[in-house]
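Quick one: co-fold with alpha-L-arabinofuranose.
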Amino acid sequence: MKKRFLALACVLGLLTGCGDAVVEEPYIPDTTNQTGTQEAAGTADTGSSSAAADTQKEDSGSSSSDGNIVVGFAQVGAESSWRIANTESMKNTFSEENGYTLLFEDGEQKQENQIKAIRSFIEKKVDYIVLAPATEDGWDDVLKEAKDAEIPVIMVDRMAKVSSEDLYAAWVGSNFELEGKKACAWLKAYADSQNVTELNIVDIQGTMDASAQIGRTAGLNAAVEENGWNLLGAETGNFTQAQGKTVMEGFIDKFGDDINVVYCENDDEAFGAIEALKEAGYQVGTDLAGGEILVMAFDSTNPGLTSALSGEIGCDTECNPLHGSRVEEIIKALEAGQTVEKQQYVDEEIFASPQDITSIDVDGSSYEVTVLTQDVIDGRAY
Ligand code: AHR
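Sure, here it is.
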């Protein structure tokens, strides 16, 4: 496989005058504990993995007859703007032009579909399996089957709880608990700046047992405990706008005027919540002291940040979906027989439209808050 990839790289190099594959942005794997919070998040670095180790195949015997590297990608679904940007990133990177054949399967947010997809990839003898696990539990059996077939599995975005780290070659994604902590640090600082001490929060959670939900909910729960905030209710909106709206309607029926903060675990849920709040006659915005309802969100997609610029979302914490080039870096390293870090966290930002808070502190580290302008939004890739 290594020889095949190098030959392909040389051909591309001759054609383009440059040996590098096309990537969306430079990526330097952050192998240090970038946040100081990985242990707390249950995501401590567990070491490294080498191509020579267990999962590397001598000869792919794969379904590609043209020398391409065959990658099977078991995607979660198409539930959100984030997910669509993520799919695009993977498809753009793993193109025929770049020397890959991509087998893409949309799991429609169902783990059983993803398991089926992985089994079909094994049957087709792909060179690599990339898995974005919908939820954390229940992957051991199928990952063992991939290991027996000597197909390296790279996990991306969310994590899976596995009985042995040998069941996957590497993971790259976000520190979701840190995202939650950053959002809550901003909320605390902002509420203080408005002299609002009583926060009555509802949490529209992501898909239950998904790492993004587990981390963001944990970040909120810790802040509720620490600051004495009131958590009125928490319910899943499954990361979709439609369910976000339905859950918000339920919260309005139950808690009505008591709510002053809506913590949405992604942008799409925030769009649904804002719709429900407006339809019920509530004022959504950043004037917490004046009685507006403050909506928090995650992802920082273009539509999310546009809503934040208008003040309808108060603070949007980034979850970066551009994993195509990151996964490719891992595959290239494995092809070259190099050691790769087992877990690679992506650096992420935090955005808000109020200008009052320009930095926040989480677990002894300081993070800059980017105050939104149209130029900031225009300068972003998704
Ligand atoms: O796992 C990442 C999360 O999944 C994103 O926050 C959400 O929008 C997506 O559906």
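If it helps, The domain at 2-173+326-345 is CATH 3.40.50.2300 (Rossmann fold).
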